[in-house]
UniProtKB/TrEMBL annotation:
Location within or outside the cell: Cell membrane
Name listed for the protein in its UniProt record: Sulfatase N-terminal domain-containing protein
UniProt keyword terms in alphabetical order: Cell membrane, Membrane, Transmembrane, Transmembrane helix
Primary location group: membrane
Species this protein is from: Burkholderia puraquae
Pfam families assigned to the protein according to its UniProt record, in alphabetical order: Sulfatase (PF00884)
Signal sequence bounds: none
Domain Sulfatase N-terminal: 165-422
Bilayer-crossing regions: 54-78, 90-112, 124-145
Superkingdom of the source species: Bacteria
Gene Ontology CC terms, in alphabetical order: plasma membrane
Membrane topology: Multi-pass membrane protein
InterPro entries recorded: Alkaline_phosphatase_core_sf, OpgB/LTA_synthase_biosynth, Sulfatase_N
Amino acid sequence: MLAVTSRPNFAAFVALALVGLVVAVSNAKYESLREPFVFTDLSLFSQLFSHPRLYLPFLSIGKVVAIVVGVMLVIGGFAAEPAVARSSTWLLLLLLVVLFIAVRMLAAGLPLSLDPCVDQARHGFFAVFVAYLMNGLRSATFAILQRAMVASPFGAGRPQRRTDVIVIQSESFFDIRRVCDAVDSSGFVQLDRARREAVHYGELTVPAWGANTMRTEFAVLAGIPSAALGYAQFYPYAFVRRACISLARWFARAGYATLAIHPYYADFFGRNRVFPLLGFERFLDIGHFKDAARAGPYVADAAVAEAVISTLNAQGDRPRFVFAMTMENHGPLHLEQVLPGESSSRHTLGEDASWRDLTAYLRHIENADAMIGRLLDHLRASDRETVVCFYGDHVPALPHVFQKLGVIPQHSDYFIWRNYGADTPECRNLVAEELGSVLLHVVQDDGNRAEEPCASEKAT
């Protein structure tokens, strides 16, 4: 900064201001998502402007005011301080190079666990942030990811059956009744029925809390534990640069039509670039849902269910693999309106303002539950054999609600269901990277039957 502006006081102040800005953002992120600011968050900075509703509301008024005042002071400082002679510019550039090399070497030697909370408690925020940045942007990070992908369980084999397969990644979905018995079960009727008919169901350990959907998404599609990805675990899609093994590619090898559905902008998290590399032939983004119903600010789960059903009903002999992600329950939930009396039909905690976010969350959970019912009812009446895997990407970003309840839930929920065969449901807790392999086992299984039944066995 000094080499560019020739203003030493201004350069020093900007350096301190940048550290302060990152610390403020990190604190805001930790308050909402229980994770500090990490180096890959820098690559998402542009989304702050293209999708401000997803980020800015998590900054408190005090933090926003402090940032605005800081920017004004920076501008004022630049205007007030005269530039000094540039005779030492080359010396400053040389010093910068030396410092860069020294920092890079120190970062490489710093003992790190790649758990940001643990590392920052040991070494401090700024040291760990810089070390992650220096180490994470090395070419070795890309190489580690590529080696990990080679070990994916989806690298061999192909389906013996031609069953349609639907995977639903439900935004912020988990069975909150596990941690709060005040929640009414009426919003989980279809989930409970699906579990009673499922092959497998249970809790799902996911590598995300309150956000960072793509971490869970990648774990399911790649079948690789986050720890094996090194620094790429914080934003795996940023480091995928070539075609790789995945759950979608496993089906594609057998001639399946592979489709991804996400009712939001295709470039969000770089999905439009990454999904073809993961083996998806088509990707339906928000452009496909321009006339679809909304539930709050986002496309309703019901519209996603109809898109999946339309795909299944489309002409063609190829079996389908559909990976659909919902968006309705994304939040920020504290921006949504909750009317008087809404809470009482969903929980018994009262109408106090501190429970409004929970009420808004449960309102969307009801819609996710209805989506389960709509899809499974359609498949119960269908003569196409279909397997459905439904799971939540992470628990919701409701830190204040969970604090009041005295809990910190970590796990989402899943079930694997099919419209053929006779199954005894098995409660089996999984980690996200195991889900795809368990799904493939169900797809390959004959459904415990002696003869081919019609797919309406589970219709009632």
